[in-house]
Design a protein that fits this description.
152 residues, 2 helices, 6 strands, alpha+beta, globular
Length: 152
């Protein structure tokens, strides 16, 4: 299994066409999963999506590939790990962090972009435990928040 310790993410950079294509291939799934994730968290811990609580599902998911502002990529024996910072265009300073996994299509070695298929791996949700034991939850980040390795 690929982990932060076993693969090296490259530096944050503007997305190139291959990353945009990968993002576009999972865009519909991303919007559905994001909507469901918010609804699930709103039942138990609404703080995750507090920053976008006044947005409709349509406004929350109004992003397109032009809102993919930055990416980091890592390659492992399993495939390509693409981390992206996506602007929610209906709010100032509101971003989601997504992780996309690319692997070789059946019957190929995945060495070229057209030989890869992509799947949404996860949308970053953060649970930070403060020194006093209190939890801080969020799934919406700011422009200056680092895009780092995450599993969920």
């Amino acid at each position: 299994m690929a982990t932060e310790e076993t693969v090296q993410l490259n530096e944050l950079h503007a997305p190139q066409q291959a990353s945009i294509d990968a993002f576009n291939s999972i865009l519909s799934d991303l919007k559905g999963v994001l909507t469901k994730l918010r609804r699930d968290h709103d039942k138990h811990e609404p703080e995750y999506f507090r920053a976008v609580k006044d947005l409709s599902d349509e406004d929350l998911t109004s992003f397109s590939s032009s809102d993919l502002e930055a990416v980091r990529v890592a390659v492992s024996a399993y495939g390509l790990h693409l981390f992206g910072k996506v602007k929610i265009p209906t709010l100032d300073n509101a971003y989601i962090h997504v992780r996309i996994f690319g692997s070789a299509k059946d019957g190929t070695d995945g060495s070229s972009a057209d030989e890869r298929e992509y799947k949404l791996h996860s949308i970053h949700t953060e649970d930070v435990v403060k020194d006093d034991g209190d939890h801080v939850y969020r799934a919406v980040f700011g422009k200056n928040d680092e895009l780092e390795w995450f599993d969920a």
